Amino acid sequence: MGLSKLISSDSDSSIHSTFASRYVRTSLPRFEMPKNSIPKDAAYQIIKDELMLDGNPRLNLASFVTTWMEPECDKLMIESINKNYVDMAEYPITTELQNRCVNMIARLFHAPLGDGEAGVGVGTVGSSEAIMLAGLAFKRQWQNKRKAQGLPYDKPNMVTGANVQVCWEKFARYFEVELKEVKLKEGYYVMDPEKAVEMVDENTICVAAILGSTLTGEFEDVKLLNDLLLEKNKQTGWETSIHVDAASGGFIAPFLYPELEWDFRLPLVKSINVSGHKYGLVYAGIGWVVWRNKSDLPDELIFNINYLGADQHTFTLNFSKGSSQVIAQYYQLIRLGFEGYRNVMDNCRENMMVLRQGLEETGCFNIVSKEIGVSLVAFSLKDNSRHNEFKVAEMLRRFGWIIPAYTMPADAEHVTVLRVVIREDFSRTLAERLVLDFKKVLHELDLLPAGEGSSKNG
Ligand SMILES: *Cc1c(COP(=O)(O)O)cnc(C)c1O
C-alpha cells in the first residue's frame, strides 16, 4: 500500500483531527439528508465554522434584542433547555415563575390590582405574538358587543400610525382587520393623536399607540390620545379603547420617566405588550401581554386543556416552546430589581447622549430621534447630494459595525435615516470608538468622486 493511498483512505475514524478528515474537503449537504452519519466533533466544527461568517451580535446595532446576559443566567437557561414550557403540570414551578413575571409586569404598568391579586397576562414568544393576542381580544370584544346590539360586525378596523411595526400589519392581514394608518410627515414621525381620533368610527376595535416608535424611538402621546378618545366616546356613545405597544419602551419608561402617564393609569388603556427580549434584558424568545382586568380578555379565547395531567388554561398561538426565556426573565426581575433596571436604562441613555453629541459634532448629520424615548440615535446626512446614508452604513461594515439605513413610511418616504440602538452591552468606549469610525468614513467619502457614494445599494 503506497503512502498516497493511506492519506486519502476513508478510515477517518482513526484520524482525530477534523481538519485532517474528509469532512472539511467535501461540500456540506444542502438539499438532501445525507445517507451516513458523521462524527459529532466534525459536525460541531464545520457548522461552527460556517457560522463564523454571521455578523457579531454584540456589534449588531440594528437590533433592540438582548445580546448579553450574566453567565449565571446563561447557566440557568442551559439547565432548563430541555423543558417544554407547555407541560405545566409537569413543570409547575416554571409556570409559577411565569405567573410571578406577569404579576410584576402588570404592577410595573400600574394595573389596578389589589394586594396579592394575580395579574392578567401571559408570556409569549415576543411582542408579535403578544400583539396578535391583544388584537384578537379587542376584535372579539367588539364583535360580541355589535352582535348583542344587532349591528353588523363584519368590517372591523384598527387605527395606528404609519410608523407601526410590521407585526400590526401581519395582525391586520391574518385576522382580517382593516388597518387605518395616520400618515406621517417630514419632521413628525409618530402618530398624531388628533388625527387618530378623527379616524375612529363605530367599527374601530381599538387605537394602538406605540411607546417607543421602532423608527425613531419616540414615545407617542398616549395621555393626549386617551383624553381625546374619552371626549369622542362621550359624544358618540362608543367605547373605543387603547392598546399600547410598549415593545421597547415598556421596560424603559417606568424606570427613567416614572411620571409619564402612558399605561393603566389612563382609563382607556386596556392592554399592553412588552418584549422581554428587548429592554426586559433576556435573549430572543420572550414577550408579554397584560390586560387591565379579566373582563378585557374574552373567555372564549382561553382554552382549557387537561391531557397533560391537570386542568390548564392556555391563551397563546403556539403550543410547545422553551422554558429558558421565562426563567431568565424571572432571574432578571429579581436579580436586578427596580434599582438595577433603572441603572441599566440610565447607562443606556448616557451612552446614547455620548453618541448623539459625537455625531452632532461632526457637523454632517441631522439628529432625528428625541432625547426622551428609547435609547437610540436616528439621524440623516445633512447633505446627501454627494453620498447617501446607505453608503455610510455599507462603509461602516468594514469596521465590524452593523448599522441599518432605511426610508421612512408614508408620507415621509423621501427621508432616509441611519439608526444605532444602544443596548445594555454597548459601553461608552464603544460609543466613542463608533464616533471615530464615523469620522473616518465621512473623510473617505469626501475623497470619493461625487455620485460614487450615492447609489441606493451603495
Ligand atoms: C420590536 C417591536 C415589535 C415586535 O416585537 P418582537 O418582540 O420582536 O416580536 C413590535 N412593536 C414594536 C414597537 C417593536 O419595537
TrEMBL record:
This is Glutamate decarboxylase. Its EC number is 4.1.1.15. The keyword Lyase applies. The modification N6-(pyridoxal phosphate)lysine is found at residue 278. The lineage of its organism: Eukaryota, Viridiplantae, Streptophyta, Embryophyta, Tracheophyta. InterPro entries: Glutamate_decarboxylase (IPR010107), PyrdxlP-dep_de-COase (IPR002129), PyrdxlP-dep_Trfase (IPR015424), PyrdxlP-dep_Trfase_major (IPR015421). Its cofactor is pyridoxal 5'-phosphate. Pfam families: Pyridoxal_deC. Belongs to the group II decarboxylase family. One of its GO terms (molecular function) is glutamate decarboxylase activity. Keywords: Calmodulin-binding, Decarboxylase, Lyase, Pyridoxal phosphate. It catalyses: L-glutamate + H(+) = 4-aminobutanoate + CO2. The keyword Cell wall biogenesis/degradation does not apply.
